[in-house]
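Quick entry between incubations.
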Amino acid sequence: MSKSKVKKMLFILSKATIENVYAGFVMANGARMEGIEAEIFFTFFGLEAIQKKKLNGLHVATVGNPAMHIPTMVGGLPGMEALATKMMKKEMEKLDMPPVDEFLEILSASGVKLWACKLAVDMFHLKEEDFIEDLDGILTIGDFYNQADMEGTQIIFI
Amino acid sequence: METLIAGENVKVNEEGYLLDFSEWNREVGEEIASAEGINMTPRHWEVIEWLQEQVKADKALSIRGIKKSGVLDIKEFYALFPGGPLKISTKIAGVPKPKSCI
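Done. Structure below.
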């Protein structure tokens, strides 16, 4: 067993840019690999990462992201997001990082619980069939807090 | 450092991973497993042997690699070696701890 005092990691994923989604996925998977429980609550734009039709079309943000080192005006040109995303995905594949759909399968098989936020689901008029099969259910934020049911639980907002 | 496992003096690092695979045998693996709370079954040994082959073939071990292995799926891997399967299974197998985050 892990020596870590952290026993359970709860992630709230509110964004659907590739860098944020992967941050959540890598941390959740990394927790499981250390014997730490992990769950992800997808809310607002984060819901794109678990919608069957959208999850493989996520992009990196090229506007309003100074670390991209491209001027904001250029980042806003048509096709820039797609280009930057393609380049980033190529680099990730080199590191053996799985694409979003495969990553979700890995997370679910590893015992990571995947939840959709009820309020956001209602707001975007989404239905259960819009989501991946591996989704564990639709919860309110209150339900999700109740998943913090052991000592050493941490909640992280992404 | 040197430590006594299953009556053999073996070299391990500070986390208990064997430094020299030639010092590994099933008894050593068995004793590391029981310290991790795992009772080895024939299925466990199949997985351990596969891991050792991968390392010998210089292939990096990762959870994604397990999914693609065709030997076992991720669910079974977690069931066989609960509490951090890649970390624990490699320790039992006498191979280095994988550096992968995935």
